[in-house]
Amino acid sequence: MTEQNIDLYKELKKYFGFSQFKGLQEKVVTSIISGNNTFVIMPTGGGKSLCYQLPALVLEGTAIVVSPLIALMKNQVDAIRSMGSDIGVAHVLNSSLNKTEVNQVKADILSGKTKMLYVAPESLTKEDYIQFLKSVKISFVAIDEAHCISEWGHDFRPEYRNLRSIIKQLGDVPIIGLTATATPKVQEDILKNLDMPNANTFKASFNRPNLYYEIRPKTKNIQSDLIRFIKQHKGKSGVIYCLSRKKVEEIAQVLQVNGISAVPYHAGLDAKTRAKHQDMFLMEDVDVVVATIAFGMGIDKPDVRFVIHHDIPKSLESYYQETGRAGRDDGEGICLAYYSYKDIEKLEKFMSGKPIAEQEIGFALLQEVVAYAETSMSRRKYLLHYFGEEFDEVNGEGADMDDNVRNPKKKTEAQNQIVT
Ligand code: ADP
Ligand code: MG
């Protein structure tokens, strides 16, 4: 098919059952189908997968989809397969396959059945796979979570750095990079590393007008403050993020003792307990999950009414990502973070064992967190500016949804409140 004779709406309906594109999807899909290098920046939940899945299904050949996590790939592939039997086959190629399975995948690609081939970046470095992929028709290469390319991203993966040279070996195939990390520095890095300075770039707004941002000084009364807040929002779902497993356990217990239904979640719990606690939260058998950052990847509960940071996160990217789990249904979403400079020093100490370059980046990201926490200006404006987006603090959507705008205070007064 060529771009002219594809009815995108018909294909959207046929494969995904949707009647409308979300946000910039149609423009992105058109760009890819026309064979352009394309760069997509959309917040989590924005609908990035469809941006490459739809072109993959309608274009001739197989699209290669690079994704960092086997679990994420498996989810996506299962989702595509569940769309029905006339859907182009999606396959995963990674180290978990045995020889017979690899041969089956290759056979399906050769026969033209496979429209999407999900690969981990390290699998792509295998000479055997490269030789094979050189011999088949590749429609394009999609690089999901493209921020993994950048040291300034929150999840740098060195294997991502080799992608450009590997793709070059496959011939002149278009590349599409996708990410939810939007700082100008990371964007620049991605375009440079993928060597596509002229890529069509599509950036969705990162504004979440229904989220209310508030920073409270972290004092020794934090636990009673926390309990008071949760009791004021009785029966509502919320997540409390803590830095350490120990703190997660401690806070979960304190809440339970105070009659709040809460469960802990962190990577130190066995898989069964973690799954159970996650399900209890999703099924609303408990109101609150107290968690480390291990909780949240792919959690899609639409009516989380508050996200509380008991400890300030290590970057504004993490803060945005974690607070973003509130109010997915566009209903109320309160984002409350407790801040003390002592916690910043603690985070700095964690970094001291790391290579110098990494430390410098880590410190720079932390300074942005400090500036955000201590600012007296519109938090939304600050946050969006950090992501390279200008926000109209008077008329913009959600302009009055933060503590600084609702209760303006003089800078000195604000600083006096910070207990270190
Ligand atoms: P992202 O990767 O940007 O975080 P996903 O690709 O996982 O987002 O999509 C988020 C959700 O949006 C999914 O549940 C998906 O089914 C839904 N979605 C995507 N496109 C559309 C659309 N055009 N209409 C309705 N829902 C959509
Ligand atoms: Mg995604």
Automatic annotation (TrEMBL):
Annotated GO MF terms: DNA helicase activity; hydrolase activity
Helicase ATP-binding domain span: 29-200
Gene (UniProt): recQ
Complete-protein stretch covered: 1 to 420 of 731
Signal sequence, renumbered to the chain: none
UniProt family annotation: Belongs to the helicase family. RecQ subfamily.
EC category: isomerase
UniProt keyword DNA damage present: yes
Cofactor(s) the record lists: Zn(2+); Mg(2+)
Domain Helicase C-terminal span(s) in chain numbering: 221-378
Protein name: DNA helicase RecQ
Entry keyword annotation includes DNA repair: yes
Alphabetic keyword roster: ATP-binding, DNA damage, DNA recombination, DNA repair, DNA-binding, Helicase, Hydrolase, Isomerase, Metal-binding, Nucleotide-binding, Zinc
Top-level taxonomic group: Bacteria
Reactions it catalyzes: Couples ATP hydrolysis with the unwinding of duplex DNA by translocating in the 3'-5' direction
EC code(s) of this entry: 5.6.2.4
